[in-house]
């Protein structure tokens, strides 16, 4: 498999050169190009998996748990848009994932960081039947909002590493052929 990058502007991660979000060093979080087909953007990263939507939510939740995250909230975007706007949308959920140890350290570094928590992980139906996309907000990108607090930088780097391992686990186990 290969790493695919979707770069559309300044501040994005370039895995090959290990340049991180907002100029921060992401060497510890960078994955080997041969390991995973992960899509990158300025604010997140994700994988497309050969799993139906319900299975993808189940497997993502299990992989998050293995990295110490619990899912505190689940927002069913499709149902919400139908109920509030009478609009149809693909199956799409936002999982509010929290790693209590990391959250505590973040709160110790900066009380207002709660505005950026929990870590959002999205799961939605892929374009190809029988596939789903699982993506996470990049903690290193969110860090750019709060500035150079060194305590937060360490927490964000660790959260980034854990979330990348979650997606790597899903991608390695359920990779969609040809991605």
Could you characterize what this model shows?
With 179 residues, the chain is an alpha+beta fold. The protein has a single domain (46-174), classed as TT1751-like domain (TATA-Binding Protein). The protein has helices at 53-66, 77-85, 100-109, 139-146, 150-174; strands at residues 39-40, 44-49, 70-76, 92-98, 119-125, 132-137. The radius of gyration is 16 Å and the shape is globular.
The CATH topology turns out to be TATA-Binding Protein
Computed structural class:
alpha+beta
What is the CATH superfamily classification?
TT1751-like domain
Order of helices and strands: EEHEHEHEEHH
The low-pLDDT segments are 1-36
Alpha-carbon Rg, integer: 16 Å
Characteristic terms for this protein:
single chain; 179 residues; alpha+beta; TATA-Binding Protein; 5 helices; 6 strands; disordered N terminus
Describe the structure in brief.
With 179 residues, the chain is α+β, with helices and mostly antiparallel strands.
